[in-house]
Amino acid sequence: MPMTITEKILARAAGKTSIRAGDLINAKIDMIMCHDVTTPPAITMLKEHGIDNVFDPEKIVVTPDHFQPAKDIKSAELHKRLDQWAKEKKIRYYYKLGRAGVCHALLPEQGHIRPGEVIVGGDSHTCTYGAFGAFSTGIGSTDLAAAIATGILWFKVPASMKFVLTGSLPKGVYSKDVILEVIRRIGTDGALYRAMEFTGPALKEMSMEARMTITNMAIEAGGKNGIIGFDETTKAYLNGRLKGKTEYTVFESDPDARYVHEDTVDCSKLEPIVAFPHLPSGGRPISQCAGKVMDQAYIGSCTNGRIEDLRIAAEILKDTEVRIRTIVVPATPEIWKQALDEGLAEIFYEAGCVVSAPTCGACLGGFMGILAEGERCISTTNRNFVGRMGHPRSEVYLASPAIAAASAIEGKLADPRKYL
Amino acid sequence: MAKAHVYQRDHVNTDEIIPARYLNTDDTAELAKHCMEDLDAEFVKKCGAGDVIVCGDDFGCGSSREHAVWAIQGARVGAVIAHSFARIFYRNCINCGFYPIELAGAIDKINDGDELDIDYEAGTIDNKSQGKTIQFTPLPDFALEIIHDGGLLEHIKKK
Ligand code: SF4
Fold it and tell me: Kind and range of the H or E element at A28?
């Protein structure tokens, strides 16, 4: 029976030769991502239920990120619980402050993501890792506890949707605009319970960083996972980077695999896009919304806090000065160091931005850039829900680092193309 | 008898159910104080034990934070009835032993303040205020089993 890449990975993990959408399976988990918000409760649950073992301390990656460095006493307590547990269970890959970073940027960068594997994490944007041809999905704390203890989780095999990306991205248009366009088309529940498979020639021209921005936002369309097949770019990225096991299995969709939805995005026709509050599906072309006054710009997060994103922002911010509060957050220590070495940090400083330590921070309204009532933020993050970055009556506008940088200069939504 | 709190809304998300500013704790009692705060600041005051939240499509979209389910459970909400649920939230509900009721047209069939009597086994909602009985499709057996066992971890332990 023909299968999609998602079905093939899940079949392998369930020890079956063939499965189809809708099947309930028990899948073996290859890797688990743990952070400071959802893992401490999972640890407590395991203790309370007296099933306090870890299925494999080599297959768990721990990094505090949401509230790190600890923003208050309560979050410090969360970090303490996470720290004690990681040490007690001898978790091999435990990234402490100084090495810790925004989980979905850190795990691929540090070589923990392998194609063909089943990866889960206690965070909805775990779907990011699908950029490597892996099945990867976010789970809650109870599932996380079960996965940590048993290494097995039940799944309903999702039906797949196919998005063919054609054409070349015009100047000033990035993978963020592509995914905002897809979500605009299908809505925030357009991919509910489904796999979003991205394919097509436009992907060939995209780096792994750019691809991760796309799969990162699959959850914003309700998707169970986002996935992109393996190619030379994937191989080159993984080469010399993988920690632990260096071999992996590559799966690809059969040409006659079944899709419940197929759509084509001609990237050459796209404009820079801004998603208006309060849904990620609220995308509007910049030509129709430039000029809207902003109070803050935020460049960072698991969606767009990677080195490539900072380079794009720096290119625009070079020799200018920002008009509004502008916060740049390199997603990992390595990116932070690169930004320093490449002179990007200096460009940000000269332009009047603040560059913070790696953290999720303000992306989820945690700290380091919270919005007051009525304030608006142009943000490179992935969610613009009510109250996401602060006061319930503040507003978040989602866009690429280029738009965020251009808007920071003008103090209002601005077209980045004139700065490139 | 449960009172219905109807929100004529789709995409009620986890940030509205429990804002991230409260995620520095996983204490259910603490989370419960802020349940639904960014959607309806009065909710916790209005909600009686066993009351029901009724919404449109895609309830619980967004974050994987199970804190959203704990806040709802802590606020003594008996059930959430929605046209549809976001995937991770739905799964979290079952894993916590909390019943998510999927019901097409829920916000049209139930008015704010209606008194409801829910039979989870039979899949019926007796709307006492309107004198109507509404059918819903009960959860599949494997999910019911988890709920009956009191959540996924109890279920695993039993096995
Ligand atoms: S950067 Fe934002 S979206 Fe990404 S994991 Fe952190 S809080 Fe979540």
Answer: strand A24-28
Q: In a mutational test of the pocket of ligand 1, which residue from A364, A383, A388 has the highest number of ligand atoms less than 8 Å from its CB?
A: A364
Q: Are A119 and A33 in contact (CB under 8 A)?
A: yes
Q: How far is CA A221 from the centre of its chain?
A: 13
Ligand 1 center–CA A202 separation, angstroms:
26
Which residues in chain A have Cβ-Cβ distances shorter than 8 Å to B16?
385-387
**DSSP element (H, E) containing A195:** strand A195-199
| The two domains A5-244+260-265 and A276-419 share their CATH topology (first three levels equal) | yes
Q: How many CB atoms lie within 10 A of CB A243?
A: 15
Cβ contacts of A73 within 8 Å, gap of 6 or more: none
Q: Give the span between the Cα atoms of A14 and A214, in whole angstroms.
A: 27
Task: Determine the Cα–Cα distance for residues A291 and A303; give it in Å rounded to an integer.
Answer: 24
Would the CA dihedral through A176, A182, A185, A189 be positive or negative?
Answer: negative
**Where does the pLDDT of residue A207 fall: very low under 50, low under 70, confident under 90, or very high at 90 and above?**
very high
DSSP symbol at B117: E
Q: Which CATH architecture has domain A276-419?
A: 2-Layer Sandwich (3.30)
Confidence of residue A365 (pLDDT cuts 50, 70, 90): very high
If one counts every other C-beta atom within 10 angstroms of the C-beta of residue A18, the result is 11
Rounded to two decimals, what is the model's pTM? 0.97
How far apart CA A28 and CA A46 sit, in angstroms, is 19
Could you report the per-residue pLDDT of B5-50, keeping only the tens digit for each? 999 999 999 999 999 999 999 999 999 999 999 999 999 999 999 9
**Nearest CA among A206, A268, A194, A279 for reference residue A237:** A206
From the number of C-beta atoms within 10 Å of its C-beta (0-12, 13-18, 19+), residue A291 rates as exposed
Candidates 3.20.19.10, 2.60.40.3500, 3.40.190.10, 3.40.50.720; CATH matching B2-158: 3.20.19.10
Query: What is the rounded CA–CA span in Å between residue A39 and residue A148?
Result: 10
Q: How far A138 CA sits from the closest chain B CA (Å)?
A: 6
Task: Give yes or no for residue A102 CB within 6 A of ligand 1.
Answer: yes
Domain spans, chain A: 5-244+260-265, 276-419
Q: State residue A230 phi and psi, 5-degree precision.
A: -75, 140
Q: Which two tokens stand for residue A217?
A: 């936002």
Ligand 1 centre distance from Cα of residue A381 (Å): 8
Helix/strand/coil for A273 = strand
Which of A29, A35, A192 to substitute to test the interface with B, most B CBs within 10 Å? A192
pLDDT band at A315 (very low <50, low <70, confident <90, very high): very high
